[in-house]
Amino acid sequence: MPRPLAGSSVLLLALAAAPLGCAESIGFDDTPADEEAEEAEGDGDGDATGDGDGDEDERVEHDELGGGVVRTTVDASDEQAWVYLDLDSKAALAEGVVGWDLGFRRFEIILNGGINGDEGVELAFIDGVDFETLTELPDDLTWITDAADGDDENMDPDLAFFDWYDYDIATHVLTPKDRVYLVRSSDGALFKLQIANYYSEAGSSGFMQFYWAAI
Question: H or E element: which one contains 15?
Answer without folding.
Answer: helix 9-17
